Automatic annotation (TrEMBL):
Residues 160-530 form the Prenylcysteine lyase domain. Pfam families: NAD_binding_8, Prenylcys_lyase. One of its GO terms (biological process) is prenylated protein catabolic process. This is Prenylcysteine lyase domain-containing protein. The lineage of its organism: Eukaryota, Fungi, Dikarya, Basidiomycota, Pucciniomycotina. It comes from Puccinia graminis f. sp. tritici. It comes from the Eukaryota.
């Protein structure tokens, strides 16, 4: 999220990883040696060398974590001189997981809009390396450029409204929040610098991390994970309460759908990270499509994995697994689904949230306990409208009063027990789509995040009339984990569920972004490579 005019004063964050559950629409009017891999100069032990057969690896989930895990593993196999065969099982009909696009009016005649994982920033080195490696093009993220006005709404009244004058907005910010914007800037930079150490040779040499708590300790983020964002910022960093409950709160609500008094400190800081958002032209999911392509993975779409079953130890002395699945040739035709079992795999990577995946794990050892991780249920409404700005009526103002085109909500009034939850988390006019025959004025695509679905009559009130609603698309997401502080009896999720059975998405309890899913998959691919080939890379892919 970028609040226009505020960038020089404090850094704000962005909507990152999101996952789709249901969608409804209403119309109303190959592998290559990469720079991070050193030439193989050491003899590497390899189980597959004993049989001269490739290591067969199944990856469950074709999102950022699954596709990048396959890519990194294929690179490690290449560097260590070992053959590998990778299969990705994806329950939907596309790659990218929570990175997907929609088209206004469901027509590719209009520019695509990111429906989930919207942008990434310069600090996200894996994603930028992918853009360079795969020759993709970037575009700058921005809201509709014809208006730079934004506002902070607390569900009852506006806590802050920008003007058309940047210098006057600066004065108002300091008048209301004191030196907090400068403090937040400095704090965000400090944490970004700390995050950048993850890509260093020294940090890579510490891995792979078999316990996520080890990763948290190694990065120094363990304390941020054990406290709430508001406690950390107010009680430890001395940021004034009003700034935290308004400026930082809107970032946490927009990016993670959670209040600043609930989300852990690291989640709050990630929300603030960066003001230089970029996205891939044509959709960020192209990165993950390329990860899969470059790994030469076999793709199995519309495959819902129901069980992972360990077989008896093979003649070669290693565990193997069989996947049971439902196959839906066309997802909407559930009556036509088929069931089956896969061929045996030497290793399995579960690259989907454990609870959502609903996979039964049957191993020879006692089952590894995975802490329950609830997700935020987020509603996204895309509206094409010819209303040049929201109507003031919904905000108890005259319908024709000028309103900001970017509105972010805070729970400030609720914190002091005198208010109600805002109707939405954020509203942004994204793009001017231009004119259309039969429509008065230009059309705009607007994106709204909310905790509950917004009915058509509410949207009509928000945009002036039902006639101003030219097209509506609603998406319900299990968007991101509820990032509660990790304090006893809370436990860090495991990275292994059995012998050569790995779990990537527990990392989302720490940080949930596209970039950090690739960092998590790097760690898992390194762990598998070390277990099977005794090979680990010497430096990060981003260097």
């Amino acid at each position: 999220m970028h609040l226009p005019g505020v960038k020089p004063l404090f850094l704000v964050g962005y909507s990152l990883l999101r996952a789709t559950l249901t969608t409804t629409t209403t119309t109303t009017a190959y592998p290559q040696q990469l720079p991070f891999l050193p030439p193989s100069t050491t003899h590497f032990r390899s189980d597959s060398h004993l049989t001269n057969k490739p290591l067969k690896v199944a990856i469950i989930g074709g999102g950022p974590a699954g596709t990048s895990a396959g890519f990194f593993l294929s690179q490690f196999a290449n560097a260590s001189g070992n053959p590998v065969e990778i299969e990705i099982f994806e329950r939907s009909d596309y790659l990218g997981g929570r990175s997907n696009i929609i088209y206004p009016f469901d027509s590719s005649d209009y520019p695509s809009v990111e429906a989930g994982a919207s942008i990434f920033v310069s600090a996200n080195k894996h994603l930028h390396q992918a853009v360079r490696q795969f020759n993709l093009s970037l575009e700058t993220f921005h809201t509709d450029g014809s208006s730079e006005n934004y506002a902070i709404w607390d569900g009852t009244e506006f806590a802050f409204e920008s003007s058309r004058s940047s210098w006057w907005d600066t004065i108002k910010l300091f008048w209301r929040y004191g030196r907090a914007p400068l403090q937040l800037n400095a704090l965000s930079k400090r944490n970004l610098d700390q995050f950048q150490a993850i890509y260093s040779k020294d940090f890579v040499a510490l891995g792979p991390f078999e316990e996520l708590q080890q990763w948290a300790l190694a990065t120094g983020f363990d304390h941020l994970l054990s406290t709430t964002g508001s406690d950390y910022l107010i009680n430890e960093e001395g940021i004034n309460v009003q700034a935290v409950n308004e400026l930082v709160a809107i970032m946490a609500r927009t990016n993670y759908g959670q209040d600043i008094c609930v989300i852990h400190g690291l989640g709050a800081m990630v929300s603030m990270a960066g003001s230089d958002g970029r996205s891939v032209q044509g959709g960020n999911r192209q990165i993950f499509q390329q990860f899969a392509k470059q790994s030469r993975a076999k793709l199995n779409f519309n495959h819902q994995i129901t069980a992972i079953s360990e077989l008896e130890v093979s003649d070669q002395g290693r565990s193997q697994y069989v996947l049971s699945y439902h196959h839906h040739p066309h997802q909407q035709l559930s009556s036509r689904r088929t069931t089956g079992d896969s061929e045996p795999f030497d290793a399995v990577i579960l690259a989907a949230p454990y609870d959502q995946a609903a996979v039964t794990v049957l191993t020879s050892e006692a089952p590894v306990q995975v802490p329950h991780q609830p997700f935020v249920h987020l509603h996204v409404s895309f509206v094409v409208t010819n209303a040049t700005a929201p109507s003031g009526e919904l905000f108890d103002r005259p319908p024709d009063q000028f309103m900001a085109r970017s509105i972010y909500s805070t729970m400030m009034r609720n914190v002091i027990g005198k208010g109600k939850r805002p109707l939405f988390n954020s509203l942004n006019y994204l793009k001017n789509l231009g004119p259309k025959e039969g429509v008065i004025g230009d059309m705009y695509i607007v994106k709204i995040f909310s905790e509950a679905p917004l009915p058509t009559n509410t949207l009509a009130k928000l945009f002036g009339s039902v006639q101003n609603l030219l097209w509506i698309k609603r998406i319900k997401w299990d968007a991101y984990p509820i990032l509660a502080p990790l304090v006893p009896p809370s436990k860090y999720p495991p990275t292994k569920l059995g012998d050569k059975l790995y779990y990537v998405n527990g990392f989302e309890n720490l940080i949930s972004t596209m970039e950090t899913q690739t960092l998590a998959s790097w760690n898992i691919a390194m762990s598998l490579s070390k277990d099977v080939w005794n090979y680990v890379p010497q430096k990060s892919w981003a260097h």
